[in-house]
From TrEMBL:
Alphabetical list of SUPFAM superfamilies matching this protein: Creatinase/aminopeptidase (SSF55920), Creatinase/prolidase N-terminal domain (SSF53092)
Protein source organism: Raoultella ornithinolytica (Klebsiella ornithinolytica)
Gene3D superfamilies: Creatinase/methionine aminopeptidase superfamily, Creatinase/prolidase N-terminal domain
Every Creatinase N-terminal domain range: 31-139
InterPro entries membership: Creatin/AminoP/Spt16_N, Creatinase/aminopeptidase-like, Creatinase_N, Pept_M24, Peptidase_M24B
Domain Peptidase M24 stretches: 206-399
Name of the molecule in the record: M24 family metallopeptidase
């Protein structure tokens, strides 16, 4: 690999006021068709898809909305009938759902002390939704259980009162199993691969997050508070897909997760994170102008943490390709940034969608392949005792030639943003992306270790 140096570079271009891309009716029809095909393949008569505000991605994939305030169920039968089971404050949304449905009112899903009287029990209402005896029922939550010591088919991350009601409605002859893998298994889940329309839809959030991150990075200076920087991590009224971070110095004092009144000081560690549907951006570095302002015990941060981490990110970006096994990427990062020395613990890369973390094809010995249409987040988190972290988490898509051509033809402004990002990454940062790797974040590969020096970033140069 090329040598890594700290060099003067231009900042990446960011785009403000980019219009959202709406998912088309055709996209929603294709989504439903894929789910029905998987139901038939796995022998499910009915899927019961759970949602609440925090865990609504699989439900929203088919309905177009999440149930604000409440729980909800989508009961999908293999013939295609969809039944929405909704609480008090979401009943009105059934008329706006992105799939044809009939609706059943379940007041038990509503907020405390709202009207919960009903003539029928919850099991009886679920029978009205078509849950019946002698069928194979797939329950879909949000968590993909992968532990080898458990019977994963019988682990359910739905509230117990709902699972109990489903079992009562279906009777002892029904087969009830966990079917979340239909949606998010990394080796075939329907949500793991995106169409051109879906990538265009998600690029909006990746652009938004990375624009906010760069704006916040440029605003960091001693004397400001975490709240002042954190205010820059919200954007265009969009809901965050992650708990935002604007943290100076040591984190989690008094169990605080959110930006507070702590004042930024020269020499502090600093962490920044924000994310929206389609992408997260994160940064971690020091509030200094150069290494002379670091405490003596961390004065070698650039060589001990930042450069090795950057080398790993460059390796990840330059080697990502369609058909690559997740285990190959894991092994690559293990070689470049050994876990025993740099103490990273999670998957070095995962999939993104409405959620910040959908699932991950990257793991030890993973046979899951990188496929065209996947949306991935660079997520390598080194940890060296006493040092600040290093982080340039951002989002890229992987697209074959046909998918790239469709994006360029139907969303030319988006495609020009991708072209501009790729050129910046190559010309300014010296990172050579494979042609199928499309940066959806504006800040892919952009690492400023000294946050008070806005001119310099790490780059690859010919050795």
């Amino acid at each position: 690999m090329s040598a890594i140096v700290l060099s003067a570079v231009a900042e990446p271009t960011v785009w403000h006021d980019v219009p959202s891309v709406t998912l088309s009716d055709q996209t929603l029809r294709q989504r439903k068709a894929r789910v029905l095909a998987q139901m038939r393949r796995h022998g499910y008569d009915t899927l019961i898809v759970y949602a609440d505000k925090e865990h609504g991605g699989n439900f929203e994939y088919l309905t177009g909305f999440i149930p604000r305030f409440e729980e909800a169920l989508l009961v999908l039968h293999r013939e295609g009938e969809a039944v929405l089971v909704l609480g008090n404050e979401n009943l009105k949304l059934a008329a706006f759902a992105r799939l044809e449905n009939r609706v059943i009112h379940a007041p038990w899903f509503s907020l405390p002390n709202q009207p919960m009287s009903n003539e029928k029990s919850l099991p009886q209402l679920l029978q009205d939704a078509g849950i019946s005896s002698g069928k194979t029922l797939g329950l879909v939550g949000w968590k993909l259980f992968t532990g080898s010591a458990d019977d994963r088919s019988q682990m359910f991350d739905l509230p117990a009162f709902i699972v109990d009601a489903i079992r009562q409605a279906a009777g002892p002859q029904a087969v009830v199993v966990n079917a979340t893998a239909i949606f998010i298994a990394p080796d075939g889940g329907v949500r793991t691969v995106n169409s051109a329309n879906e990538l265009a839809h998600y690029e909006y959030g990746a652009n938004l997050a990375s624009t906010a991150i760069l704006t916040a990075l440029n605003a960091i200076e001693p004397g400001k508070t975490e709240k002042q920087i954190g205010a820059l991590l919200t954007a265009e009224g969009q809901p965050n897909s992650v708990v935002m971070i604007a943290a100076t110095g040591d984190r989690f004092a008094d169990a605080r997760l959110y930006p507070g009144d702590k004042v930024i000081r020269r020499g502090d560690k600093f962490s920044l994170t924000t994310g929206f549907k389609g992408g997260l951006s994160s940064r971690a570095a020091y509030v200094v102008g150069d290494e002379t302002e670091l405490a003596p015990e961390v004065a070698d941060y650039l060589d001990v943490v930042a450069k090795p981490y950057f080398r790993a990110v460059v390796s990840w970006l330059e080697n990502l390709r369609i058909g690559m096994r997740g285990g190959e990427m894991y092994d690559l990062i293990e070689r470049v940034l050994p876990k025993a020395e740099y103490h990273w613990h999670l998957n070095p890369g995962h999939l993104v969608a409405d959620e910040e973390w959908l699932c991950s094809p990257v793991g030890p010995d993973s046979q899951a392949s990188i496929r065209s249409g996947m949306l991935l987040q660079i997520d390598i988190i080194p940890s060296r005792a006493g040092y600040a972290g290093a982080s340039i988490e951002d989002t890229v898509a992987v697209a074959d030639e046909a998918l790239r051509e469709e994006l360029a033809e139907n969303w030319p402004a988006l495609w020009q943003r991708i072209v501009t990002r790729r050129a910046y990454i190559r010309q300014q940062l010296g990172i050579v992306l494979p042609e199928e790797v499309l940066p959806l974040s504006n800040t892919v590969g952009y690492l400023r270790p000294w946050l008070l020096d806005q001119r310099r970033a790490l780059v690859c140069t010919a050795s």
